[in-house]
Design goal:
Blueprint (H helix, E strand, L loop, with lengths): L2 H12 L9 E4 L2 E5 L4 E5 L9 E3 L5 E3 L12 E5 L1 H4 L3 H6 L9 H15 L19 E3 H22 L15 H23 E9 L6 E10 L2 H14 L25 H16 L15
Antiparallel strand pairs: 1-6, 2-3, 3-7, 4-5, 8-9
Helix pairs in contact: 1-7, 5-6, 6-7
């Protein structure tokens, strides 16, 4: 199972699809402002044009402004739901570090392609009254690549915390033993993810309402995000917490510092899972749902 499948499974384990609709907008073209050390981008605003005039009953012409016209922008390619449509976006973002050309122009080209496909990261705060809201139109080169490197470090820490011992050879992580190094990787990763969640995400209530009566039929608690960066770190957080014990009757989270192939949280649970599988294997074929003339695969 690759990273993409792991992140999709983690998302599906942690939340329901109906809670994944928070959107983020994408734009085609950007204005740029270069400084000595940085490049700032802002999505262009393209007016869709004035609506066609209509005749007033008294014979005069008036402009007809349909609802939502003030929010239209011909430069926008529309909204998408990152958590639903791009469940492995964190992996894609972190992988940009391996493509880093090391030049300003090369980094700019990679960043521009990314933000056209997925939108800006939302590092710039909006100048409005909405608490915590981030701009969907602005990006800067230094901030973008700083976050790329940080995401790549998170992926490396996750692999160090859960992977095989060869991944820890030559590691500069603190700790004398492999177990101590794994715990150190898990601690640093958790701090990085928690820091981003606190700044860019928030708990959110979702309501389901009957169309016929308008009554609220269900309420669920999940997460919302102020920025695309926050949405990606939610994906990483779900990946961390999705490692749950596979033993019957246990749903404890397996420690992040444990190996990625560990499926139970303790020796007791490992034995309990083995006992259950042995009992299942010992059952007659008919009790396992096989009819006459059928054999187990």
């Amino acid at each position: 199972m690759d990273d993409r499948d792991n992140f999709i499974r983690a998302r599906d384990n942690e939340t329901e699809e109906r809670y994944l609709g928070t959107g983020w907008v994408r734009f085609r073209d950007f204005d740029t402002e270069e400084t000595e050390h940085n490049v700032h981008l802002r999505a262009k605003w393209r007016d869709p044009g004035l609506p066609q005039p209509r005749k007033h009953p008294d014979g005069s012409e008036v402009q007809n402004y349909p609802g939502g016209w003030l929010f239209e922008d011909d430069n926008s390619t529309g909204m998408y739901a990152p958590l639903m449509d791009e469940p492995e976006l964190f992996v894609k973002f972190a992988s940009l570090a391996s493509k880093d050309p090391g030049t300003r122009d090369g980094r700019y080209d990679i960043m521009l392609e990314w933000i056209k496909n997925y939108g800006v990261l939302g590092l710039v705060r909006e100048d409005n009254f909405v608490s915590g809201q981030r701009s969907e139109r602005e990006e800067n080169l230094l901030g973008f690549w700083f976050e790329v490197d940080r995401a790549a470090q998170c992926m490396e820490l996750y692999e160090a915390a859960t992977g095989r011992r060869r991944l820890l050879k030559g590691s500069r992580l603190s700790g004398k033993s492999l177990a101590e190094k794994r715990k150190s990787a898990a601690r640093i990763l958790s701090e990085n993810v928690q820091h981003t969640l606190q700044r860019h995400c928030y708990p959110k209530l979702y309501y389901q309402v009957r169309e016929d009566s308008g009554e609220t039929t269900d309420v669920g608690l999940s997460w919302g995000f102020h920025s695309l960066l926050g949405a990606m770190y939610l994906q990483m957080a779900w990946r961390i917490t999705s490692r749950r014990c596979d033993a019957p009757g246990c749903n404890k989270i397996i420690g992040l510092h444990e190996r990625s192939d560990k499926e139970t949280c303790s020796r007791t649970c490992k034995q309990r899972r083995k006992d259950q599988r042995d009992r299942e294997a010992a059952k007659p074929a008919t009790s396992r749902g096989l009819g006459a003339g059928q054999s187990a695969p």
